[in-house]
Amino acid sequence: PDRAFDIMVNHWYLYQVCSSRLFARAGFYQVGGATGFRDQLQDVMGILYTDPAYARRQILDHAAHQFAEGDVLHWWHESILLGSRTTFSDDYLWLVYVTYQYVQVTGDTTILDEVVSFCQADALNPGEAERGMRYTTGKHLGNLTEGCNADGGDTSFPPHSSIFDHLRLCITRALSRMGSHGLPLMGCGDWNDGMSAVGIHGRGESVWVAFFLVDLVPKFVELSRLVERTDEDFNANLMQQRETLIHNLQENAWDGAWFLRAYFDNGDPMGSRNNLECQIDLISQAWAILTDTATEDQKRSIFKECDTRLVNREHEIIQLLTPPFKHSRNNPGYICDYPIGVRENGGQYTHGAFWYIQALLKEGHYDEAYFNYSIINPIHRTSSLADVLKYKVEPYCIAADIYSNPQFPGRGGWTWYTGSASWAYKTAVENILGFHKQGSTVTLQPRIPSSWQSFTLRYRLSTTTTYTFIVGESATVLSEKTLDAVTVKVGTPIKLIDDGKEHVVLVLNDDK
Hints:
The strands form eight sheets. This protein has a four-stranded antiparallel β-sheet with strand order 1-2-3-5. A four-stranded mixed β-sheet has the order 19-20-23-21. β12 (311-312) and β13 form a beta hairpin. By secondary structure, it is α+β, with helices and mostly antiparallel strands. It has helices at 3-24, 37-44, 52-63, 93-106, 163-175, 207-224, 232-252, 282-290, 296-309, 350-362, 366-376, 385-391, 420-432, 474-477; strands at residues 35-36, 73-77, 82-86, 114-116, 130-134, 140-143, 161-162, 205-206, 262-263, 269-270, 280-281, 311-312, 317-318, 321-322, 348-349, 401-402, 435-438, 441-444, 454-460, 466-472, 486-489, 494-495, 502-508. α1 crosses α13. The chain starts with a helix and ends with a strand.
């Protein structure tokens, strides 16, 4: 029913992912051309339905840029073997998240047995947070099930490990690096690169990474049960550590109405009602809900506070944090170099906005979620001359950020080279339309706004086989009944068959 939604989801979001993020790795605002560890991993989640083989290669390539100690190159230029070794606390964890997504969608468990050797480079000095350096890349050595010897091969590299062992190393490294509040050490930053000084001395802690680990541990355990050498004692220990993390978040990160964002090296909180700047940060709140760490009462409080403090309806933006940093007593890092309300410093950072939208959808706030999803759509933001003059950037390309700065409220920031395009596509397909593919099975569990009576989703399984899903209330959908159509209820697993035919499936959503 929403033409602007169709245009972006059918064409532009994936075009943006492929052209600027995967092929060029550059845009008008950032022309470096490097591969980012967390960045391109998130990007390939957007192409899992259209080019899973590309996503598979990307996962293997990223594993080859992990060190035997568990950390990874934050970014690298493969052509000149130059990269940045850092103490970022989240980079390597995205390997777990995206591998899980890949296995879920494709059903390809063989990737877990692929053997990839580790990257090599100089170690960081004690107290050193990051350094650009030359490196020797790891190698993909084949599949364990195809007879590759994981202990042999090129002796100039550290011992070779399967992708599953790379994932295990990621999880164990993160869980072994905890601070005084029982939360993960932040290092020189987490997802928000601009918070580069919060944990620069090795004591600051990231509340958001704690939530991320709460999400990842069950995913890792699920993956571990797909390999032959499952260690259930190890899994049980991980789940116990997860419970401890949840306890520590409740005890040390709940600020009364929302969750903190971090602790500085000196133990001061960030994202607290007692702070003058950055009293509340969006991504901690979104992931508290996505992981069900928050109680039901806490969820209601979080939604109320986010809607009041961070969702700016006048300028139609969802701010990453508020108030922006300007004269912070504790230096959070280079985020302070941005003007107030620009990029991470209190503007809309669109990744975080989509995570918040996913949280709204998860908890049944479908209309509010779709309103928020729609205001981000660049077509919506350029629907009149006044809108164009305010937004100032492309009407077909999602922006990484939108300003809340009082002089330029609602102005678009970086376009093209932003991972938000992948999250926009993923949120639309999986969270709103409810399309969930697991190997050769699809289920539809839509979370659509009340104004939608029905929608049609056409999925091309192969060059010759297509599935058309007509989803909606019985009175609407059954009018589309054809001789060959199959009728199912929402949530019913649908087996996909690559038989060179066109299939029509009517999906009844009477409990919308």
